[in-house]
Amino acid sequence: MNMPPIDWKQLHGDAFRDTRVLVTGGAGFIGSHLCEALTQLGVRVVVLDDLSGGTDANLRGMPRVELVRGSILDQNLLLRAIQGCRWVFHEAALGSVPQSLRQPRLYYDVNVTGTLNVLEAARVNRVQRVVYAASSSAYGDSPVLPKSETMPPSPRSPYAASKLAGEGLMRAYSASFGIDTASLRYFNIFGPRQNANSAYAAVIAAFAKSLFGGHRPTIFGDGEQSRDFTFVHNAVHANLLAARCEKPLGGDVVNVGTGHRLSVNELALKMAEHLGKPDLKPAHEPDRPGDVKHSLADLTAAHRLIGYEPIVSFDEGLAATLKWYESSSA
User: Fold this and answer.
1) Which residue among 159, 186, 308, 325 is the active-site one?
2) What is the 3-state secondary structure (H, E, C) of the chain?
3) What pTM was computed for the model?
């Protein structure tokens, strides 16, 4: 199944043309896809990234992108990078639940203090809106499905707590300083450019690396945990919708998913069959602390607030992702 390229211009028209925006973490997985869409929409993009989780190769071939190498902990660099920007897409973060258990203070510093720095720079420069990459991990392990934004948060890891704290800062700055903000709670985003080589790689990336290498994928726990796996172009679409939303969002939290879920066992089987390697059955390891059992997005508020509906199905996205991993490992 070949997925046709997304026509971002058809979806978003001229809403962004000839503007300047800042994308923190723009050389990373999700950030680079967002930059790609923005450049197709005629935007001058400034990327602030320390390349700890991304690479400048992710931005190769994108016109009108300026890469500023540095950290969101560098307040002076942030102030310079954000000058003249109308919108900020705040994607920069440390993103692994298991690693956050080993380095909780570092996760707090980067994900919370770094977000505060981004908002301060936005306030000083009178940015129109900050769109923040939040996380569905904020919901914790409540058995209630689907997850609605009105549910009380219950973070189960330092990572989840740090991302939830960022949502609080978004609301506070909207209420206190008149900077409009929105928090997009991502549900298990996957796609091309997602790093498969980290010890903490996301499950689809990790499975792809194992299967292409001829190895059995590793599942932590019984594999019956389920996720709302969401192709990266859906996250990009949600960011663009949130940025150009005409009504104030005031720090509102919005789920970004597909509204469908798949167990990790089903995922492993589907990927192995897609690659013609059904004999590579998963190997099971013990559960990991901080992981949640089930995740599924309620998209009611997303549709009402920003007009979001997924534009790429799971199967289309998985086929495109596996094709990319195949070509990048060749």
Assistant:
1) 159
2) CCCCCCCHHHHHCCCCCCCEEEEECCCCHHHHHHHHHHHHCCCEEEEEECCCCCCHHHHCCCCCEEEEECCCCCHHHHHHHCCCCCEEEECCCCCCHHHHHHCHHHHHHHHHHHHHHHHHHHHHCCCCEEEEEEEHHHHCCCCCCCECCCCCCCCCCHHHHHHHHHHHHHHHHHHHHCCEEEEEEECCEECCCCCCCCCCCCHHHHHHHHHHCCCCCEEECCCCCEECCEEHHHHHHHHHHHHHCCCCCCCEEEEECCCCCEEHHHHHHHHHHHCCCCCCCCEEECCCCCCCCECCECCHHHHHHHCCCCCCCHHHHHHHHHHHHHHHHC
3) 0.96
